[in-house]
């Protein structure tokens, strides 16, 4: 496959505050739920993001590397508790100054910032009050977003309210591997709802300021596919799509929940008394300007057979052979294609998913601008005897996904940017530091030295060769 993307396309990489910043208690920052979890007894593996890739102190070096790598954008997130360290709502000037410096550095290096307001780390005090499950969550989140919009205004051209609300909710309230480590389907549904409301309330604050910036949400659409075309499989596919995607993307883009969602949830025994008409009104009037899509793989489903509702991630790596997946009682469960390759964390490698996803968005939502806000390949890796990291497998992965992306744009999909996950190696939630995604290697044993991997140079050349003049 050949082809180029249109001029003006955003090419970059992505990261998130807790995973790359470090400086967890520096500069007046307050404690987040991840600080609390990682420092507590439930963190059985013992890894923390206390130092991570130390972006907090080394952002200048990292942003310079991005420029040298031919990037014109960077996706990063703001740590809520760096801006508002405690429940008083008092703004931390040092936190604001840090992000102002990062933004200045981006500007001076020709890097367009794409900034996420919530990438999994909420204040510890809010977590103690029930976190996402507490109905006050959406108001607290909107208050924080208002501060960010007022402080940074048009300095940030692309704002993302929330990263992967459902994935976060499934890990936190179903699998229970993310804080607050709960397994409760009723609470899970309420959390997903609260996050939809929180997104809309944040957008309402954004619109009040009449900024020239744009606001979006980041979702991870695992395009839901089936291996058999029967009526039962098609029902499972629709239910999988509701569960994985549509209860985030429909309200965010169309301003309403899918019509079949609430009846199905009630049929499954969920008490929906938390749904309030005033929330639905806010959702209806506050939709996004663009959609961010994290794209790693597709979701293969089949009709429900047995088992309780759960999500089974692989946070073990090569030591765990089971395929990551879902069971949603009465709705669907994960299917496996034995013929496709899987990575060491048992995730299916299926490059065409980016094309199928973009085509699906075009069909369901028309021309809404889309950015691929994450796409990447995890590897165990270390430098060779020459000190080089030859990640040919990652290059193959990125190349194959990008070819499908270019094809989709050439066929009329409104995809406007691409971010490889991740900028540097960083903390992988629960997995720790052996699971690496970066285009830049971090030598954790030698003063966090940055070593651009082979993929970093490959990406620089790919950008040059595949962008229209
Ligand atoms: C996405 C998240 O779900 O996947 C990132 O937005 C995350 O924060 C990435 O790091 C990869 O996940 P993991 O668990 O393999 O590190």
UniProtKB/TrEMBL annotation:
Keywords: Glycosidase, Hydrolase. One of its GO terms (biological process) is carbohydrate catabolic process. InterPro entries: GH, GH_1_N_CS, Glyco_hydro_1. The keyword rRNA processing does not apply. One of its GO terms (molecular function) is beta-glucosidase activity. One of its GO terms (cellular component) is cytosol. It holds the Pfam family Glyco_hydro_1. The keyword Hydrolase applies. Belongs to the glycosyl hydrolase 1 family. This is Family 1 glycosylhydrolase. The lineage of its organism: Bacteria, Bacillati, Bacillota, Erysipelotrichia, Erysipelotrichales.
């Amino acid at each position: 496959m050949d082809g180029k993307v249109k001029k003006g396309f955003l090419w970059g990489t992505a990261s998130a505050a807790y995973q790359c910043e470090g400086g967890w208690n520096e500069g007046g920052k307050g404690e987040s739920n991840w600080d609390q979890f990682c420092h507590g007894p439930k963190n059985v593996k013992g890894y923390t993001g206390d130092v991570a890739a130390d972006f907090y102190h080394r952002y200048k070096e990292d942003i310079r590397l991005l420029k040298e790598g031919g990037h014109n954008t960077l996706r990063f997130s703001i740590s809520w508790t760096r801006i508002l360290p405690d429940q008083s709502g008092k703004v931390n000037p040092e936190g604001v100054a840090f992000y102002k410096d990062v933004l200045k550095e981006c500007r001076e290096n020709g890097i367009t910032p794409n900034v996420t307001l919530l990438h999994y780390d909420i204040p510890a005090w809010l977590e103690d009050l029930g976190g996402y499950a507490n109905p006050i969550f959406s108001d607290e989140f909107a208050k924080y977003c208002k501060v960010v919009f007022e402080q940074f205004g048009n300095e940030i051209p692309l704002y993302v309210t929330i990263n992967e609300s459902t994935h976060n909710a499934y890990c936190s309230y179903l699998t229970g591997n993310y804080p607050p480590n709960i397994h409760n389907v009723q609470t899970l549904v309420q959390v997903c709802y609260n996050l939809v409301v929180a997104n809309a309330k944040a957008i309402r604050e954004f619109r009040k300021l009449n900024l020239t910036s744009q606001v979006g949400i980041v979702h991870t659409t695992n395009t839901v596919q089936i291996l058999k075309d029967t009526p039962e499989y098609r029902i499972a596919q629709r239910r999988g799509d509701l569960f994985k995607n549509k209860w985030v993307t429909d309200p965010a883009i169309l301003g309403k929940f899918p019509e079949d969602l609430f009846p199905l949830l009630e049929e499954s025994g969920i008490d929906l008394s938390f749904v309030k008409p005033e929330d639905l009104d806010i959702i209806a009037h506050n939709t996004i300007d663009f959609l961010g899509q994290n794209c790693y793989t597709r979701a293969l489903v089949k009709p429900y057979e047995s088992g309780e509702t759960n999500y089974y991630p692989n946070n073990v790596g090569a030591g765990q052979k089971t395929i990551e997946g879902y069971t949603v009682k009465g709705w669907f469960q994960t299917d496996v294609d034995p013929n496709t390759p899987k990575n060491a964390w048992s995730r299916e490698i299926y490059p065409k998913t980016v094309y199928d996803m973009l085509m699906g968005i075009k069909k369901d939502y028309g021309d809404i601008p889309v950015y691929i806000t994450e796409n990447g390949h995890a590897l165990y890796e270390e430098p060779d005897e020459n000190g080089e990291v030859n990640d040919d497998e990652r290059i193959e992965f990125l190349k194959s996904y990008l070819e499908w992306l270019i094809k989709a744009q050439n066929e009329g999909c409104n995809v406007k940017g691409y971010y490889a996950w991740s900028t540097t190696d960083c903390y992988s939630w629960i997995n720790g530091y052996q699971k690496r995604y970066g285009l830049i290697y971090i030598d954790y044993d030698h003063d966090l030295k940055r070593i651009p991997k082979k993929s970093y140079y490959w990406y620089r050349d790919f950008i040059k060769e595949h962008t229209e003049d």
